Amino acid sequence: MNIVRVVVLALVVAAATWVAGWWTVPLCGAAYAMMRRSARRVRVTQEAAIGAMLAWGALLAYQATHPTFGRLAASIGGAIPAPTWILLSVTVLFAGVLAGSAAFLLHDR
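User: That's the sequence. What structure does it adopt?
Assistant: Structure tokens below.
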């Protein structure tokens, strides 16, 4: 796995998510797979998933500095009876599943 590619992908996913929303995550994963057709499918899928998880982890860490983040986390925790760290982990994993699935499906067999 190339760390530089993963970090660059994470920056692209974070910027796209910030500007246009969550649905850009599978688009970025798919675009990454199209650019890396010569690489093995498993490697491309892993890199796309890890890049997306890094991006959303960074976005969540940034948002956690906002004063209202605690109130939002508490209200979501009231609706979903689970600890906040589990909800945040599932959020980050969701990004990985979106990007990894798109990369897996659009990579040449």
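Residues 3-106 form one domain.
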